[in-house]
Design brief:
The protein is an alpha+beta fold and 480 residues long. Helix content is 36%, strand content 18%.
Length: 480
């Protein structure tokens, strides 16, 4: 620090990272400890609260006192001391060994003041700094006798590759899912729970499908609250059931292709559940809009990780839970999640997701492809169901019943219109589109499409050695 920087700091006044003292105070150790537990800071000795420079004498003697105070902290605090004219600058750089205590007590900067931490605040500080992992702490609410049945244990053993003849307690201890006190850890409870909300009320995943691009109108909502591994499968299946899945015809072979890569979606869901802050009262949230998929995880980034680290390094907030999920092969490769998601999106031909980070949330946003009606590559699964239903003439009410839709206007605009524009469906009274006697039937192009799909299915089954599918024949309509 030079003289100009000193005067600039004084002009700014006291704050979170600066403190002014007329002389060396009796509580200097407390102030240094508070700065060490924060992001560092500067204490100016020889400056009044109002910013007046009064100076201090005998700098060498005071420097020795300050060094002794720094060494008496637990652990010792790194400190830099500089003399600028009559002012003594005590600089605490960012420390590496948090938390620090002085006189057996912990202190933290709060605004422009230093405050002693309560027991709960100390616990929170340890969690925030990644010094204690919540997933490794005991979960006394979980009882092996009452909360773990044979079927669920057998399922866990298959997933975690546990030998059939190994005792439950032995297996859980080997996996560190039982602590030294004999209690199941929180990670164990979340992996073995039939309903995770019993052991973490906000441990579930809330999913919602919205009409349009905002949250004004909900079309569907589901909550998933089984064990963590099962929730991953359930949430991914729900997402795939709501986004478009195209039937792509290649040389009369049919392939199903979701509009977004399934493995990238799975990786994002795994990240949201494995790295979330389970102490938060918020749950993981999944939102599907017309133009995007959002996967929201509470807790921000783990301690020791910045936004610039995304895709480069991995710092698990719940290392025990993450390690077991890796053993269960829910995690492809430790440390490769974001990078793998980006690569999968590139291979699929869609935009890489945008990851938004705040102190309380991490949100992964997948942009949905603009072309969503399937006219370029083939019809979606729901569209095929409607086309098969229209082998004979059907009213709009008949088709709505098959599709499970109730709003006639929206069904006409969102479902019938794309099928008519694609040339797969046609009206029986095309000159009077709104006629009360209007019906819909397969157009010639739609019949050809279904015939191609059926032929592709027959070829696929023949290659697999299976029998031909029992498909309803498509009658050829006589020209009118």
């Amino acid at each position: 620090m030079n003289e100009q920087e000193l005067h600039t700091l004084i002009a700014q006044g006291e704050g979170f990272a600066s403190e002014f003292k007329r002389s060396i105070p009796s509580d200097l150790g407390r102030e240094m400890c508070a700065f060490a537990n924060a992001s560092g800071g500067v204490i100016l000795l020889g400056v009044t609260d109002k910013g007046e420079i009064v100076g201090v004498a005998d700098h060498n003697k005071i420097k020795s006192q300050i060094q002794a105070i720094a060494r008496s902290a637990e652990p010792p605090i790194k400190v830099e001391i500089a003399s600028i004219d009559s002012v003594l600058c005590v600089i605490m750089p960012v420390q590496d060994n948090k938390p620090y205590s002085f006189g057996g007590k912990f202190f933290m900067r709060e605004g422009a003041n230093s405050q002693q931490l309560s027991r709960e605040e100390i616990r929170e500080f340890f969690y925030a700094e990644g010094l204690v992992y919540f997933d490794e702490t005991p979960c006394p609410a979980f009882s092996l006798e009452n909360d773990l049945d044979e079927d669920h244990w057998a399922l866990f053993c298959r997933r975690a590759k546990i030998p059939d003849n190994m005792a439950t307690a032995v297996a859980l201890r080997n996996l560190h899912l039982i602590g030294t006190a004999g209690h199941i850890t929180h990670a164990g409870a979340w992996l073995l729970a039939r309903d995770i909300r019993k052991f973490r009320v906000s441990g579930d995943v809330a999913c919602a499908l919205f009409m349009g691009t905002d949250k004004v109108r909900i079309l569907d909502r589901r909550d998933f609250h089984s064990d963590v591994y099962s929730m991953i499968d359930e949430v991914v299946a729900w997402i795939l059931s709501k986004i478009n899945v195209e039937y792509i015809i290649k040389h009369v072979k049919r392939e199903e292709r979701p509009e977004l890569p399934e493995e990238a979606i799975r990786e994002a869901v795994v990240n949201a559940l494995a790295h979330r802050d389970y102490r938060s009262t918020a749950n993981v949230q999944v939102y599907i809009f017309k133009d995007r998929l959002e996967i929201v995880s509470p807790g921000g980034l783990p301690a020791g990780m910045t936004e610039a680290d995304l895709g480069i390094k991995s710092v698990p907030r719940n290392p025990l839970l993450f390690g077991i999920l890796h053993r269960m092969e829910a995690v492809e490769k430790i440390g490769s999640g974001i990078r793998r998601i980006r690569g999968l999106c590139q291979e699929h031909g869609v935009a890489e997701p945008v990851i938004k980070v705040s102190d309380s949330w991490v949100t992964t946003v997948f942009r949905r492809p603009v072309d969503q009606v399937g006219t370029k590559s083939g019809p979606s699964r729901d569209q095929v169901v409607i086309l098969r239903n229209c082998l004979s003439e059907k009213t709009i009410s008949d088709i709505m019943q098959v599709s499970g839709r109730s709003n006639r206007t929206k069904f006409r605009n969102q479902v019938l219109k794309p099928l008519l524009e694609a040339g797969w469906l046609e009206m029986t009274i095309p000159d009077r589109p709104t006629s009360s006697k209007q019906k819909y039937r397969l157009a010639a192009r739609g019949r050809d499409l279904l015939a191609q799909l059926e032929e592709g299915e027959r070829r696929r089954l023949a290659e697999l050695g299976g029998s031909e599918p029992q498909l309803q024949p498509i009658p050829r309509r006589r020209p009118t």
